[in-house]
């Protein structure tokens, strides 16, 4: 069951993906999920040590989900997020890996 | 002589580049410049057949330039734009090529 809107793979747009990745916090979230696998929102915030409002973080997770970059499912009271690696690779081959590689370099 | 602000290569940021590319019109501009080489703004607008205001196009060219994706120089009354391929490749290897490849696929 999907409680949240997730675009179909074919509807994932390139400008949408690039826009969603075009923010330092969202890039950090994606990097963290790519490294750690499925994670609750709260754990991501804690791991990144970001002192920002919960509503701001929710916004960032929503932008990533609606762009087709992440998938979010509810388990109990937690929202668990994963990267849609296979869908992204199918739609835009190589893009996520190059971006993740650049995140490392950009530090 | 550079009339406009262009970030140094080392100051080109990944979120900034991704944000600038995260727009369908700017992606088309970049695609066109990558294919055709240096082009005046007016020629790009005409080639893309975009019926949008000149001020909107100027905004898009400015976002691309300030993100470090394009270089703009003035020659007579024309503003000539090129992609900063070498700078981008040095800063974020592979990124531009992957994105340009995805633009093709996204159509």
From TrEMBL, chains A, B:
<dbReference type="InterPro" id="IPR011991">
    <property type="entry name" value="ArsR-like_HTH"/>
</dbReference>
<dbReference type="InterPro" id="IPR036390">
    <property type="entry name" value="WH_DNA-bd_sf"/>
</dbReference>
<keyword id="KW-0804">Transcription</keyword>
<keyword id="KW-0805">Transcription regulation</keyword>
<dbReference type="InterPro" id="IPR036388">
    <property type="entry name" value="WH-like_DNA-bd_sf"/>
</dbReference>
<keyword id="KW-0238">DNA-binding</keyword>
<dbReference type="GO" id="GO:0003700">
    <property type="term" value="F:DNA-binding transcription factor activity"/>
</dbReference>
<feature type="domain" description="HTH arsR-type">
    <location>
        <begin position="6"/>
        <end position="107"/>
    </location>
</feature>
<protein>
    <submittedName>
        <fullName>ArsR family transcriptional regulator</fullName>
    </submittedName>
</protein>
<dbReference type="GO" id="GO:0003677">
    <property type="term" value="F:DNA binding"/>
</dbReference>
<dbReference type="Pfam" id="PF12840">
    <property type="entry name" value="HTH_20"/>
</dbReference>
<dbReference type="InterPro" id="IPR001845">
    <property type="entry name" value="HTH_ArsR_DNA-bd_dom"/>
</dbReference>
<dbReference type="InterPro" id="IPR051081">
    <property type="entry name" value="HTH_MetalResp_TranReg"/>
</dbReference>
């Amino acid at each position: 069951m999907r409680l949240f809107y997730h675009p179909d793979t074919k509807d994932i747009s390139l400008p949408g993906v690039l826009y969603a990745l075009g923010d330092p916090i969202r890039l950090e979230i994606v990097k963290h999920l790519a490294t750690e696998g499925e994670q609750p929102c709260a754990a991501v915030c804690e791991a990144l040590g970001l002192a920002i409002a919960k509503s701001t973080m929710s916004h960032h997770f929503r932008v990533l989900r609606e762009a087709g970059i992440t998938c979010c499912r509810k388990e109990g009271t937690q929202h668990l997020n994963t990267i849609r690696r296979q869908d992204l690779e199918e739609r835009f081959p190589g893009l996520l890996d190059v971006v993740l590689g650049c995140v490392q370099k950009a530090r």
